[in-house]
Amino acid sequence: MDVTVRWHQPIPLKKINGAFSYDSPTLKAMEGPGIYFFARRVGKKIVPLYIGQTTKQSLAKRLAQHLDKPTLLNNLEHAIKGGLFYVFGTVVAKPATQIESALEIIESALIQEVLAENKELFNQKGTRRSAHTVSFTGNQTARTVIDKKTMKIRKD
Fold it and tell me: Is 156 contained in some domain?
């Protein structure tokens, strides 16, 4: 499978009267299926908080659904401080490509990449994925097998 994700301009999310809202001139690009994530900007770093994809409804409808979910919104609001935004991407693929399969692969790859960087996500019903921390001390020879002093293990 050979696909490209075309990322669109991030959409800032603002809390107004207790609810998140957005102003987006790119709603036309959100009419179809795609991949998306919620994130916060902390200094120059982007910290992803939730990654998803949609094939059965448009990206615009999926965003509206998320903005009506109290659990996810609460998690997003109380996550690391910084500017909250939504980023979406549309898939550019050959006509015979099954978009649903492509989006599953892309979503899985993005989640794996974020978790590999020891970042936490709110995926799976708005709750954080649990993680265990393992620290290594003692004999230097044994410690060379794993060249880390600390390792986070994700429980899916």
Answer: no
Q: Convert the chain into a string of H (helix), E (strand) and C (coil).
A: CCEEEEECCCEECEEECCEEECCCCCHHHHCCCEEEEEEEEECCEEEEEEEEEECCCCHHHHHHHHCCCHHHHHHHHCCCCCEEEEEEEEEEECCCCCHHHHHHHHHHHHHHHHHHCCCCCCCCCCCCCEEEEEECCCCHHHHCCCCCCEEEEEEC
Q: In this predicted model, what pLDDT tens digit does every residue of 52-84 receive, in sequence order?
A: 999 888 888 888 888 888 787 788 888 878 888
Domain boundaries, position 25? 3-128
Q: Which residue has the tokens 């790119």?
A: 26
Residue 32, amino acid: G
Paired strand residues for 154: 131
Residue 21 lies in a domain: yes
In this predicted model, what pLDDT tens digit does every residue of 141-152 receive, in sequence order?
665 666 656 555
CA proximity to 156, closest of 138, 140, 134, 132: 132
34 belongs to a structural domain: yes
How many independent structural domains does the chain possess? 1
